[in-house]
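Regression test attached.
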Amino acid sequence: MTTPDNLPRPLRKRRLSRRLDLVLSPIILVALIAVWHFVTVEFAIPAFILPPPLEVWRSLVAGLAAGPFDRGGFLYHAGVTFSEALLGFVLGSTVGIVVGFTIASSRLIERVALPYIVGFQSLPKVALAPLLVIWFGFGVEGKVVITSVITFFPLLINSMAGYQSVDPDRIDLARSCNATRLQILQKIILPSALPYIFAGLNIASVLAILGAIVGEFVGAQSGLGMLLMQYNQSLQIAPVFGVLLILGLMGYASNVAIRTLERRLCFWAQRATPAANSES
Amino acid sequence: MSHPTRSEVRPTPAPQPAAPGGTIIEAQGLTKIYPGATGNVLALQDVSFRIKDGEFVCLVGPSGCGKSTLLKILAGLLPYTGGTVTRSGHTLEGPGPDVGMVFQAPVLLPWRTVMQNVLLPTEFRRLNADDFRARADELLTLVGLSDFKDRYPHELSGGMQQRAAIVRALVQDPPILLMDEPFGALDAMTREQMNVEVLRIWNRNRKTVVFVTHSIAESVFLADRVFVMTPRPGTIAEIIDVDLPRPRDLSIINTEQFGRHATRIRALLHAKGDLS
C-alpha cells in the first residue's frame, strides 16, 4: 500500500496508524516467543513443565509431517475433532433455529416452554458429557451429540430474540400484500432475524470445538482431545503445546469463516449485534 | 402509460372498479372493540361514511381517536367488531390488490435495493415482477428517484425513503391509497415538499386517498374532505368540505379561506376538550 503525497494530513496520519497495527501485532508475538525462549533456557526449566519454543516447533512440524490418514500425526486427529465439531454445530444450530422460531411464533408455546429452557440453560452442558458417552458410546456419535446440545442453546435464544425483534410494520406490510405465512417467514422474518442468528452462530462456533474436546476427554479412540490427554499423561508437554496451537487455529479459522459469511449476508445491518458471553 | 393493464397481469378477477364519482369505500355503524385485561376498549363507535372514487380524504384527530385503527380496518389488516364495510364493491374481507398502503415509517427492507423493495408486493402476489418494472421505473422517475433504484435504503434520506414507499404502494396501480401519518417522522420542510408531491401524484393518477394525520394544516392543504375525529370513544365528530381550488400550492396556506377551515377544525377538536 502506497500513500500518495497529496493526501490531506489527517488522512495520511490515519493510514500510518493503521499500518502501525499490522506491524505491532507480529512484534508482540516475536517478543513473547523471545521471552519464552530466554526464560526456559536461562532458568533451565524442565521440558515436562515448560518446553522451549524451539522444541514445541519441532514437535509441531513432526506432528504435521504425517499424512492425514496416519494415526500418529496431528492432521488425522484434527480431522476427527473438526468433523465432530462441524457435524454437531450444523445439527445443534439448525435444530436451535427451528425450535427457537417455533417457540417465538406462539405465546402459548413460549409460556409453556420457557421454564424448561431457563432450567436447562442454567445447567452446565459439559456436565452431561459422561452421561452422553454412556448413551452413545466412545465413537464419533457421542461427541456430535454433546456438541449439538452445547450449540443448540445460543441459537435457540438468539433466534427467539431475532424473531421477536422483527418490526411489526414489516409483517403488516407483507400482510397488506396478501403474503402467505410461509412468505412472511422466508422474506421478512428470517432475513430480519439474521443478525441475531449470526451472533448465535459466532458463539456456537467456539462452543462446538469445546464440546468435541470435552467429549474426547471423557473417552475416545481418536481426536485432538484424546491426543492431549495421552501426551499429558506421559508428560510430553511439547506436543501438548502443538495440539493447543492447532486448536487455536481451528477456532480462529471457523470464526473468520462465519464472520465472512455474516458480512456477505448481513451487509445491510448497521452494526453486528453484540455477541453474548461465549463461556459455558 | 405503457404498463400492462390490470386484466393482463392479475390472474384472479379484479375488484369491480367503481364508476367515476361512485362510492368506493363505505362504512355503516362501524365499531371496533379491543378486548383488554382491565376491560374492553371502545376504539371506534358507530362510524359511518362514504368515500367517492378519486376523492382525497384526510382523517384528522388527536392520538387515541382511532384514526389509525380505522385505516387498518379499511386496509383489511384488522378485524372489526360490528357494522358493515364495503370496499371496491365487496364486503371487506381482508387485504387486496385494490389497496396500496403507506405506513408512518417507510418500512423498506434494508437487504433489498429500492427497485427490489418497490416490486415486493408483486412478489408476494406471485406475479411476474418483470411486468411491473416499466411502471416502477416510471413512478420512480415521477418522484425523482430514478437514479437511486439500485441503491439500498440506508443510502437514502428519510424523505426519499418515504417516496420509495409510496412508489411501492402504487406499483400495482391500485385504485385506493391508504396513508397512515406518512410524513409524521419528517422535518417540517421535507414534510411540506412531500405534501406538494403527494398532490402532484394524486393529480396524475386520481387515486382514492385516505390520509391519516394529526396536522390540521396538512389535512386542509391535501383533502377534498376532512373527517374530524375525537377520542373516547373514537368517532367522526364532523366532516368538513374543503372547497379550496385545485391545483393547490403552498401559497394557499396563507389565504383567508384556508385559515377559516383550519380554525373550524381546531374548534371542533377543542370543543371535545382533547387539545390543550
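Expected vs. actual: identical. Residues 106 and 178 of chain B are 14 Å apart (CA to CA).
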